[in-house]
Write a structure and sequence with these properties.
The complex is a heterodimer. Chain A is 32% helix and 17% strand. Chain A is α/β, with parallel strands linked by helices. Chain A has three domains: 235 residues, Rossmann fold, CATH 3.40.50; 173 residues, Dimethylsulfoxide Reductase, domain 2; 134 residues, Beta Barrel (Barwin-like endoglucanases). The model of chain A has no long low-confidence stretch (mean pLDDT 97). The longest helix of chain B is centred in the first third of the chain and has 10 residues. In chain B, strands 1-8 form a two-stranded antiparallel ribbon. In chain B, strands 2-3 form a two-stranded antiparallel sheet. Chain B has a two-stranded antiparallel sheet with strand order 4-5. The chains are: A alpha/beta, B alpha+beta.
């Protein structure tokens, strides 16, 4: 008889002759997966999931499995470089770390002196768990301007949950929810913050019911008990319709409502403004289906809502998040076992404290770009990207002279890409830290070689809300690459912040762990630490909100001058709001569905991952394709009032014929001219970033539903 | 006699393609060669609305493999333990096996002029290791490896689920009888 075990380290070591195995935590996307990293001859030779890790239970996605291919890629930037030709020329010269950091420090010191620290904007995209160090250096410098994706990605969940129930409610998959709504999300592909696909999948294996809200037939939608195929951008109306059913059929948790909510009467009045006939008209979802979904969710407990970023990249961002929290709350699932828990992180210096927000002088915080307009965002140190481009191009309300992007590729990821490009071409000085020379880095003055997760010590997930902190251990050193944390620690000393930083960043890790009475060298010996798990804490302490209640009526938003109750706002560009435009642009364009292997703009140079999808794909219903003369695999022009791009057609029956779905994040590392074809298939050539179309409170840009036309591509068709 | 099987519960596959990359990590095949490939297959639900499922294109290690008979140079053989192995050193790249395979699971590696397919990671299996794609990579836990005589039962019972709920998948033992 032969016995086999998963991830059998002993046999792996013996068979392949590996020299050592290091346990660590992946950060190929939003992080958190426990891994075994095998090393041979000083190089990472194999990556395997840790079967006993509480986050991934040994399973690992394509990005994690390909991490060594990324780290050892022949195009990887291995030392600092400075640009020696015009922007976008691709001409770079190797420099030392000292020259690079001294140049950046000189610029910071000069601009701070001449234009004020607010003229220097730091930025990160979806991050490398570098948010704490980036905010720290900016706040200590006195710049209130850190450009993140926080206005429309995860940040809104944090802000709106803090004002509604104190913290972000995370699904207790471990204790088997019996009904799951997957709303604008496909966790089996996307791994959104605080979640992995595996626990969701296991919940279904344990027999959970599933309701999916999505304009496209995803595989979860195909497996769902109920699929609500809504008109893109009408999530708020749909949620209000479901709440209408739950309220009027008295399916809610009465004890919770009576004792722990604030604003019930006003809330009931608001949901009664959304009868199902009206909601059906807005959302295209038959009212019987809305009713059935509301009943199933409200009566199958514990239940949970698996959400993600799609509902946030809309004009209704903050209200969408709040409405889904209301669905969790009214059904008795908030802080309930098997429902959605307000987890406690272990006692550490949290990301806000580490970020030194308290050290930013009030008068500097008041200068936060866009802070007058997007007041909820400003409260949480979040800015809208257009406000940065405006400050560069028009120098209003003051000039921005320097950008420092760390793990960010805004030329491809930010809405209205032409405007972004113009701003980056104009800005006086730009530094970038990344793995590769991206289309954004091509416009920089200095590019710094950033370390991947294989090359750093760090406390993984310490900013998340799932209650775990995880050990990430440095496995190898590659070239002269440094972690974002190490490079900013070094830079901080060169701009007069030395007293607030450390000799090496290990000191920063010790600082985070200090309240636990632990040092990094102690934590390194462990795999993870979990905070104390308790349910229904609000029964003892109330919720951490101004009223100590679960706020259906937001006293915070009211004070800021916003509608305290959630509402449906029509998307700025739609058959309803712009019927005239709709005649010329007859289809609703949705963007950004995640692809396995890619992490936004990342990994398109990695063969194993690019092999999963060679070309950008636009999904079109077969009837629509026939009408427009488009065949499977054809290159198609997608045109919006902002511009045009091309992607390849995939005929897809699982979408409404009035809707087409384009991919995001596309550039072509293999194209050496025209800045890697940054504008050929980049969906953000099509998206809009006008302030009027953004969520009024959090400043989320509406990039998930716009209007377009499509037609077959011919040579030169993008001119 | 030992009998190995690798089987995929396709109804549970989410299409994340981690198995494809786990295979690449093990075999470093060129970009066009996938021993395992996940593809969409469209159909209709009972009510006539569109539906789809993910299918895995991979060698089934057939009981009576058509590829073995088709190969003119005996590069493909079925071992006593059930694993069907294509030996690239012997293969002449004639393509007969590709034609013969009913599962479209063999491809021609044009850079080498050789046919390639999944050999069930026999080099791992012979060293007591689970094939790369089945080694708990799959987030749906839907790639099963084990005793051919028991594999359908393993799938039906989701044999891994109890150990998973207890958080100790490393303690799960897969036994293959002699």
């Amino acid at each position: 008889m032969t016995e086999f075990r998963y991830a059998n380290v002993e046999r792996e070591m013996k068979m392949y002759g590996f020299d050592r195995m290091v346990k660590s935590t992946c950060r190929g996307c939003h992080g958190g997966c426990g891994v075994y990293v095998y090393v041979k001859d000083g190089k990472v030779a194999k990556i395997q999931g840790d079967p006993d890790h509480p986050i991934n239970h040994g399973t690992l996605c394509s990005k994690g499995l390909a991490a060594a291919e990324i780290a050892y890629h022949p195009d990887r930037l291995l030392y600092p470089v400075k640009r020696v030709g015009p922007k976008g020329s691709g001409r770079w010269e190797r420099i030392t770390w000292d020259e690079a950091l001294d140049t950046i420090a000189d610029r910071i010191n000069n601009y701070r002196e001449k234009y004020g620290p607010e003229s220097i904007v730091f930025g990160y995209g979806t991050g490398r768990e570098n948010e704490a160090v980036i905010y720290r250096i900016a706040n200590l410098l006195g710049s209130p301007n850190v450009l993140t994706a926080g206005h429309f990605c995860y940040g809104p969940r944090i802000c709106t949950s803090i004002i509604t129930c104190g913290t972000n409610p995370i699904i207790d998959y471990e204790n088997g929810p019996k009904c799951i709504i997957m709303w604008g999300n496909n966790v089996t592909i996307s791994n959104p913050d605080c979640y992995k696909g595996e626990p969701f999948s296991v919940a279904l294996s344990r027999g959970a019911k599933l309701i999916v809200v999505d304009p496209r037939l995803t595989r979860p939608a195909a497996r769902a008990d109920i699929w609500l195929q809504l008109r893109p951008g009408t999530d708020a109306a749909l949620a209000l319709g479901m709440l209408n059913v739950i309220v009027n059929e008295k399916l809610y948790d009465k004890e919770f409502v009576e004792n722990y909510t604030f604003g019930w009467d006003e809330f009931v009045k608001r949901v009664n403004e959304y009868p199902l006939e009206k909601v059906e008209k807005i959302t295209w979802v038959p009212k019987e289906k809305i009713q059935a979904a509301a009943r199933l969710f409200a009566t199958t407990r514990p239940g949970a809502i698996q959400w993600g970023v799609a509902i946030e990249q809309q004009i209704n961002c903050a209200d969408n998040d709040r409405l889904l929290m209301f669905l969790m709350g009214l059904t008795g699932n908030i802080d309930a076992q098997g429902g959605q828990v307000l987890y406690k992180t272990p006692p550490i210096v949290n990301v806000g404290q580490f970020g030194a927000h308290a050290m930013l002088p009030r008068e500097q915080a008041a200068k936060r770009l866009g802070g007058d307009r997007f007041r909820l965002a400003a409260r949480f140190a979040i800015i809208n990207p257009k406000s940065v481009w405006d400050a560069i191009i028009e120098e209003k309300p003051y000039p921005v002279k320097m950008l420092f992007f760390i793990s960010s590729n805004p030329v491809v990821t930010r809405d209205n890409a032409k405007e972004v490009y113009k701003a980056l071409e104009k800005v006086e000085f730009m530094a970038v830290a990344d793995f590769f020379i991206t289309p954004t880095a091509e416009l920089a003055d200095i590019v710094l070689p950033a370390a991947t997760w294989l090359e750093m010590d760090y406390i993984g997930d310490f900013w998340k809300r799932h209650g775990y902190i995880l050990a990430r251990r440095k496995v190898v050193q590659i070239g002269e690459c440094r972690s974002d944390h190490e490079m900013l620690n070094d830079l901080a000393h060169r701009i007069g912040q030395g007293q607030f930083w450390w000799d090496s960043f290990e000191g920063g890790l010790d600082y985070i762990l200090e309240p636990m009475g632990m040092k990094w060298r102690d934590f390194k010996e462990m795999d993870y630490v979990r905070g104390e798990v308790r349910y229904k804490k609000y029964k003892e302490f109330g919720f951490s909100t101004p009223t100590r209640k679960f706020e259906l009526y937001s006293t915070t938003l009211e004070k800021m001058g916003y509608d305290p109750l959630p509402q449906h706002r029509e998307v700025p560009e739609s058959p309803v709001s712009t019927p005239e435009l709709n005649k010329e642009y007859p289809y609703i364009l949705i963007t950004g569905a995640r692809q396995p292997g890619f992490f936004h703009t990342e990994n398109r140079q990695v063969k194993w991952l690019r092999g999963l999808h060679r070309d950008p794909i636009v999904q079109i219903h077969p009837d629509t394709a026939a009408k427009e003369g488009i065949k499977e695999g054809d290159w198609v022009v997608i045109e919006s009032p902002r511009g045009k791009i091309k992607q390849r057609a995939a005929l897809f029956p699982g979408i409404d014929p009035r809707v087409v779905a384009a991919q995001h994040g596309w550039w072509f590392p293999e194209k050496k001219e025209s800045n890697h074809g940054w504008d050929e298939s980049n969906v953000n050539i099509l998206t809009d970033n006008a302030y009027e179309g953004c969520d009024p409170a959090i400043g989320a840009t509406n990039i998930r539903a716009l209007l377009c036309k499509i037609y077959p591509y011919k040579d030169g068709g993008l001119k | 006699m030992k009998k190995y099987a690798l089987k995929i519960a396709e109804a549970e596959c989410w299409g994340c393609k981690a198995c494809e990359v786990a295979c690449k990590q093990e075999h470093k095949t060129s970009v066009d060669i996938n021993f395992i490939k996940i593809i969409e297959e469209w159909g209709k639900k009972e009510d006539g609305s569109p539906d789809f499922i993910f299918r895995a294109r991979i060698c089934r290690h057939c009981e009576n493999p058509a590829c073995v008979d088709a190969c003119p140079v005996e590069a493909i053989r079925k071992r006593d333990d059930g694993i069907v192995i294509l030996d690239s050193d012997v293969c002449t790249g004639c393509g007969s096996c590709i034609e013969a395979c009913p599962y479209n699971a063999i491809s021609l590696d044009e850079s080498q002029g050789k046919a390639k397919k999944c050999n069930m990671c026999y080099h791992r299996v012979d060293n007591g290791l689970i094939p790369a794609c089945a080694d708990n990579v799959c987030l749906a836990h839907c790639i099963y490896f084990g005793d051919a005589r028991k594999i359908d039962k393993m799938i039906e019972e989701k044999f891994w689920l109890k150990a998973r709920i207890e958080g100790k998948l490393s303690s799960q033992i897969i036994k293959v009888e002699d």
